[in-house]
Amino acid sequence: MDEKIGSNSSDKLACRPPAIREDDRIFLAWQRSHMANERTFLAWSRTSVSLLAFGFVIERLDLFLKYQILLAGGHPHVPQSHEVMFLSLVSFGLAGVLTFISGLRFLRVRRHINMGEPEYSVAPDILVVLSVIVIIIIAIVLSVQRLAHVV
């Protein structure tokens, strides 16, 4: 009982896979870690689908507004906007990149859990924040440009 796990300096450097078959508590903790990893992957997937939906809505909103103006008896004098298509394509591209990176992150974290390594990356979190910032900036710039043409 005098020997503690991880008391040796070489034990601290070398990570060992968890002994999931030896203790039920370790097995349950291992399962919880994997389930948390899967939930995180699903959350990233939902975010990617949301970006896809946003791109689709932005693309179709322009057509909807023109149709509503025609129904009201007006003439839509706003020309076809390539900016809206650009914003939706950026949204589609970011959704694809986010899906790919979230899949890589899922596999990497899974490997770390199985190896017993407590190392994780914040890169996907930064990617999502930057993606949202890029989309907001592009939307604001394009909105200001369209309003300048209308007024």
UniProtKB/TrEMBL annotation:
Membrane topology reported for the UniProt record: Multi-pass membrane protein
Segments passing through the bilayer: 41-58, 84-107, 127-148
Keyword line: Cell membrane, Membrane, Transmembrane, Transmembrane helix
One Pfam family from the record: DUF202
Keyword hit for Iron: no
Domain of life: Bacteria
Gene Ontology terms: cellular component: plasma membrane
Localisation per UniProt entry: Cell membrane
Residues annotated as domain DUF202: 32-111
Name of the protein in its database record: Putative membrane protein
Organism listed in the record: Desulfomonile tiedjei (strain ATCC 49306 / DSM 6799 / DCB-1)
